[in-house]
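Sample A.
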Amino acid sequence: GLNANTKYYFQVRSDCGAEQSNWSVASARTECGALTMDQIPYSENFEDVSTIYSSTQGNYILCWDRYASDPDHYVYIPSNSYAHSGTHFLDFHHTNTCFNIAILPEMDATINASDMMVSFYACRSGNTGSLEVGVMSDKEDPTTFETVSIIDLSAAETYEYVEQHISLEDY
């Protein structure tokens, strides 16, 4: 079989009986697969440019998914001086009328999510800001998002990073 999260190259050409086109090189990447216990603790700092891909909704990271209630306001990975460390960070480009979901890789069914903790640094760029941390049973269906914790960032200064530790023990 094929390995998870691996880019494969292949050659294709049309074959119309007596006529054939020239070979063309194409590529495809396999699905990432679920995180296994030997990959825990899982860490992502968004600095490994080999794991960042570009799309019409800005740069994002391989093996993560995202949802935007408004396609014009989405989650992406910019590169600038606002990062906590390094030059890349996860940016929720949203308004008061829409929401975004950044979806980490799925965990293998043998991993007990209630034993896990999510840690990260968060900041706000506007006058107010809150961030919901939760879990999803189906990454394709945003209605399966279950809030575990709501982080109020309004007390922090603009672009002041605050370290967060969210336990999933109640999930």
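Sample B, a different protein:
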Amino acid sequence: AADKLLPGIYREDAKTSCRHKKLLLDLFRKRCKEFDQPKYLPESNELRWLFFARHHGLFTPLLDWTTNPLVALYFAVSNLDGGLTDASVCVWALHVPREKFRRAEEVLNPWREDEWFMIDPPPVTDRIARQSSKFTFHPPSDPSPLEENLDERDRLLKIVLHQPEDLGSGG
């Protein structure tokens, strides 16, 4: 589990710079054009391309969320490879007021946004629909962790399922 709620494109542990990751996104988009263009992925909608890229494992300024607690638990433990590690395992819960939600059609150029927002994505992949996906978009103008950008109307809860010091305690 991540210590900070920060999209992969801004994480320091990643081996490439944010600028280079943006170039990778552009290359991904260019390579996708070699195939038939899906109707749900119009050329002009940058956010839909970001959703599509995120669900294919690319670093984006999107942070994945779900409204389904079982999906959240699955992703919290899916990288354990058969056992607990020395890392914490947790699920984050976020309540976002309605005015912080945006529609994909309203955001013409997400790279020019200056505040984070929550978005209920259109189903550009089957997994987005099955996983009850939501995303927070984190603008390049403020690549800081989400927990540092909340206001009094936002509520964030970290539910710890496993702490490293629990290892070997027998229960």
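Observation for Sample B: The mean pLDDT is 80.
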